[in-house]
Automatic annotation (TrEMBL):
<keyword id="KW-0456">Lyase</keyword>
<protein>
    <recommendedName>
        <fullName>GDP-mannose 4,6-dehydratase</fullName>
        <ecNumber>4.2.1.47</ecNumber>
    </recommendedName>
</protein>
<keyword id="KW-0521">NADP</keyword>
<dbReference type="Pfam" id="PF16363">
    <property type="entry name" value="GDP_Man_Dehyd"/>
</dbReference>
<comment type="function">
    <text>Catalyzes the conversion of GDP-D-mannose to GDP-4-dehydro-6-deoxy-D-mannose.</text>
</comment>
<dbReference type="InterPro" id="IPR016040">
    <property type="entry name" value="NAD(P)-bd_dom"/>
</dbReference>
<dbReference type="InterPro" id="IPR006368">
    <property type="entry name" value="GDP_Man_deHydtase"/>
</dbReference>
<dbReference type="InterPro" id="IPR036291">
    <property type="entry name" value="NAD(P)-bd_dom_sf"/>
</dbReference>
<comment type="similarity">
    <text>Belongs to the NAD(P)-dependent epimerase/dehydratase family. GDP-mannose 4,6-dehydratase subfamily.</text>
</comment>
<feature type="domain" description="NAD(P)-binding">
    <location>
        <begin position="6"/>
        <end position="345"/>
    </location>
</feature>
């Protein structure tokens, strides 16, 4: 019998990687996608196309984390062995602008799923994974952060995820549910959302390299993050649901880098050298050398600037994870290095920008 998995947030970065991972493991995969006015399935279209030919057991359902009736209906219909709750308003900065919606989808949404499992009598059958986050640590109480570090969230997103974390623990303890939290530190990839800082950097620098953009505006360049690759992290999400007992685990690389360093490393992959001048809001990243001669006019010019619009009312300055429990109990460790991650993202965005340029040039020729 095929195992059946239900993934909320299937159209997101992790949803796409996890769907591929579970399909490769022989699962029947069901995904929840919400209604949008434009297509939002670019990351999983290849899987959906194959499912239409009957080659892959991959099914999409319309539903929303803010709508109990849709979640109840889907869970009843799918009768999943495993639910991976990845759906969330996942942008920290946006959560300051949409705090109530963030609480509804990221906090109460989790309760809706847990209650659906109970109401439908699936407690003994369905295992539940909650996408918890290093944002729970917020104002950091100790370095590095492990499963034992106290939480102190610093955004409406972090606070909503705190409720989600504890309601998952509570349903495990109160009802004997197999429910667990993966406390994942930042993880990125070429399909990372374009408004998160890593992807924003690699996209913009690739465009600058090809003359499609002249500069990149960022916020807090001193922020420190523990960045891993999403492909490595979804394996861990699955592993957490295969244990004898449900437990919560920190997933991280144990390496920390600043936003500024991410910029420098990405620029280097693209053949550009940046030097920093000034400080605070006046800081500028000056292009001092470039392999591509076409960039000569930009040498000596600021291609990275700081814009107060991208600062947050309260910031999480420094995150560094200690995943030793995951290593010892689950035999997991991150496979992709920071350098490999930056390289993969920067080169992917360079190729994407090159094809955009090529199609713009060819349409000019046709005219
Ligand atoms: P993304 O933002 O890429 O994906 C979020 C997904 O949730 C999308 O499919 C989105 O749909 C969906 N979604 C948002 N709101 C709703 C809603 N109301 N109802 C149904 N679906 C909804 O996030 P990631 O893939 O990066 O992250 C996955 C999860 O892991 C999230 O919960 C995030 O908070 C958490 N997390 C992520 C980390 C990271 O570094 N990536 C680290 C730690 C935790 P749509 O495509 O339509 O927008
Ligand atoms: P984060 O990721 O807030 O850690 O949440 P993000 O990439 O948005 O920010 C990381 C750090 O970079 C700083 N920063 C900027 N951020 C953005 N988005 N845009 C900018 O221009 C910019 N300039 C500097 C931020 O201030 C921050 O310090 C991500 C999300 O995936 C969450 O869902 C997840 O829970 C956490 O990672 C772990």
């Amino acid at each position: 019998m095929k195992k059946v998995a239900l993934i909320t947030g299937v159209t997101g970065q992790d949803g796409a990687y996890l769907s591929e991972f579970l399909l490769n493991k022989g699962y029947e995969v069901h995904g929840v996608k919400r209604r949008t006015s434009l297509f939002n399935t670019a990351r999983i279209d290849h899987l959906f196309a194959e499912s239409q030919d009957g080659k892959l057991p991959f099914v999409l359902h319309h539903g929303d984390m803010t709508d109990s009736s849709s979640l109840l209906r889907i869970i009843q219909q799918v009768q999943p062995d495993e639910i991976y709750n990845l759906a969330a308003q996942s942008h920290v900065a946006v959560s300051f602008e949409e705090p109530e919606y963030t609480a509804n989808s990221d906090a109460v949404g989790v309760l809706r799923i847990l209650e659906a499992i109970r109401i439908l009598g699936l407690v003994g059958k369905t295992r539940f994974y909650q996408a918890s986050t290093s944002e729970l640590y917020g104002l950091v109480q100790e370095v590095p952060q492990s499963e034992r570090t106290p939480f102190y969230p610093r955004s409406p997103y972090g606070v909503a995820k705190l409720y989600a974390y504890w309601i998952t623990v509570n349903y495990r303890e109160a009802y004997g549910m197999y429910a667990c939290n993966g406390i994942l530190f930042n993880h990125e990839s070429p399909i990372r959302g374009e408004t998160f800082v890593t992807r924003k950097i690699t996209r913009a620098l690739a465009q600058i390299r090809l003359g499609l953009q002249s500069s990149l505006a960022l916020g807090n360049m001193d922020a420190l993050r523990d960045w891993g690759h999403a492909r490595d992290y979804v394996e861990m999400q699955w592993l957490m649901l295969q244990q004898t007992e449900a437990e919560d685990f920190v997933i991280a690389t144990g390496e920390q880098h600043s936003v500024r360093e991410f910029v420098e490393k990405s620029a280097a992959v693209l053949g550009m050298t940046i030097e920093w001048v000034g400080s605070g809001l006046g800081e500028r990243g000056i292009l001092t050398a470039a392999l591509d001669e076409a960039l000569s006019p930009l040498i000596g010019k600021p291609i990275v600037t700081v814009d107060p619009r991208y600062f947050r009312p309260t910031e999480v300055e420094s995150l560094l994870g200690d995943a030793s429990r995951a290593r010892s109990k689950l035999g997991w460790s991150a496979k992709t290095s920071f350098e490999e991650l930056v390289r993969e993202m920067a080169l992917f965005d360079l190729r994407t920008a090159e094809s955009r340029l090529a199609s713009a040039n060819s349409s000019r020729v046709v005219k």
